[in-house]
Specification:
Length: 62
C-alpha cells in the first residue's frame, strides 16, 4: 500500500497518456489517499508535467 510508482498496478502516467490520446475538452483526476504525500512528489510531478506538455492547464481543487 502506498508504493506509488513502485506499485505495478499504478496507472497514473497511463492516465496522462490517455488524456493526450483522447484529447477531451476537460477532465478530472481524483486524488487517491497518499498521492500528495512528499514521497510521491516526483511521480505526481511527472504526471503534471506530462499533462502540461500536451497543452492542458492544471488546476488543483480542494
Amino acid at each position: 500500500m502506498g508504493r506509488g510508482k513502485d506499485d505495478p498496478r499504478d496507472l497514473l502516467l497511463e492516465g496522462a497518456r490517455a488524456v493526450d490520446e483522447i484529447r477531451p475538452r476537460s477532465f478530472v483526476f481524483e486524488n487517491v489517499v497518499g498521492l500528495l504525500h512528499a514521497r510521491h512528489a516526483d511521480h505526481l510531478g511527472n504526471f503534471l508535467k506530462r499533462l502540461k506538455k500536451t497543452g492542458y492547464m492544471v488546476h488543483r481543487s480542494t
